[in-house]
């Protein structure tokens, strides 16, 4: 029997996502992702001082503001023809690294893990940890009152869809609590050079305005060490344990099979030589080079005035009243690369590094192969729900470890910023990778003011609606084929959606 169900809103993600599924015989046949709230940042930016852009665009999101700030400064640096000094580049990597660590931890522990972990297991806890004991008392009180249903369906109803091993459940719940502290630590660590977080005060075109001192280097190093221990001993281990408990998710949520990364954490002069590499994978092909002119956005099924398919350098944002465009179903535009749907994010970056397997990326192959061996999985299994979780954890480790090397390279008391002058007329592109994937900002300056500003954001790629040719977006494709045991509680679909770590606040902007 065919039926249509709505998951609206999808909880435990960022922003406002509604997903509609057409199900036949307990299998998803079609999926539609709708971004439900217009934001208007690209319009707010028009006619402003270009130097406001890295501050305003950071407000697109509270989870990945660092990436928006960096994309904006890169776009402006391209327009102003300046490059930051070495210290400035290293500080950006260290601030972005801190943001990646906290973002990957929030995604696994606080957003996704509750799809797999039975929080009720904490009622069997008999140890002395005060936080776990407090949580146990709270869960017991909720179970007896039933008051949180349906806000927290993982409490009173729906049994038997979570991991069964009490030790795995209690360990993961303990790490859920510890991860709150670890995220605070990651913010504190990044703020040493960011001035404050999540929204950075010190990012400007030309570099970073914070001074590099031995005291700050030592403080960052001490906090980083604690985070690395947590990533190695808790995060990676818990992801492996979840993967062992739910091996069927190596088969679920495959998606479009195309991957894109602009590259992040530049290590050479200018925005080049990225620690997380640039590349494009189409289907089973190798990682090939990327050309920004291949990016377009389509608005056929989006609530924007009908327009040609445009590269963001000349992109237009002209919202319409949803009532006047009934064929449309989302505030997200539909980005495409050379006409193709692309998946972006940690899986894309790690697969690209894995396939390139050159220079420093040998390390990625060794780590990934080690994880696959432990799980008895193959490289092709990476394109799945569990593959996304595993590559995110691997990436978190790679970035945390690399931060120690960037930190060691800082030169105390040497400048981290260079002066800039805003030209009368100019344009520039800033491409980077936010924790959720490929992020681009395009700026056009006329009369020293912003004439046009366009952002194409990771979740715009992943949660895009259909395009003029009718091709569904990456998450829409990944949902097709998902088996739903109980259409009243389509947890299998939400596992697929959350594996992409969507942020609709970013995606619509
Ligand atoms: Ni709002 Fe973001 C990241 C960006 S995702 S979280 O990471 O850019 O669309
Ligand atoms: Mg945009």
Task: From the structure above, extract its key features.
509 residues; alpha+beta; Cytochrome-c3 Hydrogenase, chain B; binds NI-FE active center; binds magnesium ion
- Identify the CATH class: Mainly Alpha
Q: How helical, in percent, are the residues?
A: 25-40%
Shape descriptor? globular
Low-confidence stretches: none
* Number of beta-strand segments: 15
Structure description:
This protein has 509 residues and is of the alpha+beta class. It has a single domain (37-142, 168-482), classed as Cytochrome-c3 Hydrogenase, chain B, CATH 1.10.645. The protein is built from 14 helices and 15 strands. The chain has helices at 41-44, 53-56, 65-80, 86-112, 130-145, 166-194, 214-245, 346-356, 362-375, 385-409, 458-462, 474-479, 491-499, 504-508; strands at 2-7, 17-24, 27-35, 203-204, 207-208, 259-261, 264-266, 274-276, 279-281, 287-288, 295-298, 334-337, 425-434, 437-446, 449-456. A hairpin with a 2-residue loop joins strand 2 and strand 3 (27-35). Magnesium ion is lined by residues 42, 333, 454-456, 509. The site of NI-FE active center has 17 residues, from helix 3, helix 11 and helix 14.
